[in-house]
Write a structure and sequence with these properties.
Blueprint: H1 4-14, H2 18-25, H3 29-45, H4 51-63, H5 67-74, H6 84-94, H7 102-108, H8 127-146
Helix pairs in contact: 2-4, 3-4, 3-6, 4-5
Length: 147
């Protein structure tokens, strides 16, 4: 269990709302998480980020003492396709059914929902991946100039 000092420091540093802390530490904390996750599955279906659910999951995991899972939830590198991979992992941990929809399966696998998506997921690239690609292009251009 976390000390009050640890909790206060984490809430301030991560900008977690105190109201969420009260809801998550009560007897119904797991149910609050489950309802939030279920709601945010629909946000992903609509090509919107589930920031609220993932933030609450991170807080809940940390409060439970699961630092490894909390770090995974906080890691931006694990956030492709609107956070679908992380939310699917959370569903598995919590026993919540993930939609048996091919588009959602694709997104949870870190791919665009479909080949002809017009809602934006084909355009989504993690900033670190984009920088790596731009660096590679610059290297190739420099090599071509030497030839």
């Amino acid at each position: 269990m976390r000390t009050p000092e640890e909790i206060e420091e984490k809430l301030v540093n991560r900008r977690w709302p105190w109201s969420d802390l009260e809801r998550l530490t009560g007897a119904g904390g797991r149910e609050v998480i489950a309802q939030t996750v279920k709601h945010d599955i629909y946000r992903i279906m609509d090509h919107k980020e589930p920031w609220y659910a993932l933030g609450m999951l991170e807080m809940w995991a940390w409060l439970q003492g699961d630092d490894e899972w909390a770090a995974y939830l906080a890691d931006e590198a694990t956030y492709p396709m609107y956070g679908a991979p992380r939310l699917r992992d959370a569903c598995r941990r919590l026993g919540i059914e993930w939609p048996a929809d091919q588009d959602m399966t694709n997104m949870a696998d870190g791919k665009e929902c479909s080949e002809w998506c017009e809602r934006g997921c084909i355009k989504w690239v993690h900033p670190k991946e984009l920088q790596t690609a731009l660096d590679r292009i610059a290297d190739l251009e420099a090599q071509l100039k030497e030839v």
